[in-house]
Amino acid sequence: MKTNTNAKVVTLSQAYKNMPGALVLAILGWVIKCMTGNAAFPKPPIPLVAAVPPDETAPLDMTTRMNNLDAAIKNAVGGGVIQTGLKNAALSSAFEALDANGFYAQTIARTNLSLFLTSGYQARSTNRGQSPLDTPAVTGIDNDTSTQLDVHVSPIVNAVGYEVQTCIGTGAWTTVMFSTQARTITLTGLTTGTVVQVRVRALGGSIGQSDWSMPGSSIVD
Questions:
Q1: What does the alpha-carbon distance between residue 205 and residue 208 come to, in Å, rounded to a whole number?
Q2: Nearest 5°: CA angle at 133, between 124 and 103?
Q3: Long-range contacts from 66-75, C-beta under 8 angstroms, 24+ separation
Q4: What is d(CA 108, CA 41) in angstroms, rounded to the nearest whole number?
């Protein structure tokens, strides 16, 4: 059987290194979820969770790194130089894990893009042009659970994540979360009886971000 020498080799996108810390946190969680139990990637170099019993010779697992980053981001809000330094150190630890397991997935998948994407990572685009991301659309907002909104957004090709902002009344637009996926983004802890406007933009690509979507709105029950 002839080998297809024209097949494109998958290349890991490291766009997460230019993303806000909160989105890096979301990407870590998504990769952990996608690689857990994934038979295609049985032995990632950075363990997904800590070994039981503990293995002092193993690298720090991804779940612990994710939890450390989460704590560092929260502590850095309004903090000083020390808190910022701890956040940067937690980000470096997260990038080390994302790189190691990403290159591992890239090596196994090689030219199989579909297989590579099951790892939770994104592939780097081969398009060298400076093309902006398409603008997402808020396609629906559900309020099936009290104080919670499920925001449905159209997925955008080459996006590595989505920034979500809300506006209540005549207040300013405020970023409330980052998500690695678009189809259903859940906002929690909302106040019953308020009208919440929501807008979303895609992150990634060669430009870095898309325009903001047209806002959607819903009353919180």
A1: 6
A2: 15
A3: 66/25, 66/28, 66/29, 66/32, 66/94, 68/93, 69/21, 69/24, 69/25, 69/28, 69/93, 69/94, 70/25, 73/21, 73/22, 73/25
A4: 8
Q: 3-state SS string over 45-73? A: CCCCCCCCCCCCCCCCCHHHHHHHHHHHH
Tokens of 157: 């090709």
Give alpha helix (H) positions in 52-199. 62-76, 81-109, 113-117
Burial class (CB in 10 A: 0-12, 13-18, 19+), 15: buried
DSSP percent split of the chain into helix, strand, coil, nearest 5: 30, 20, 50
- pLDDT, one tens digit per residue, over 42-76 is 999 999 999 999 998 999 999 999 999 999 999 99
Half-sphere exposure of 212 (CA within 13 A, CB side): 12
pLDDT tens by residue, 142-187? 999 999 999 999 998 878 788 899 999 888 999 888 888 888 999 9
Calpha distance 214→201 (Å, rounded): 10
Neighbours of 74 (CB within 10 A): 11
Strand partners, 159: 204
Helix runs in 110-172, H state only: 113-117
Per CATH, the number for 138-219 is 2.60.40.10
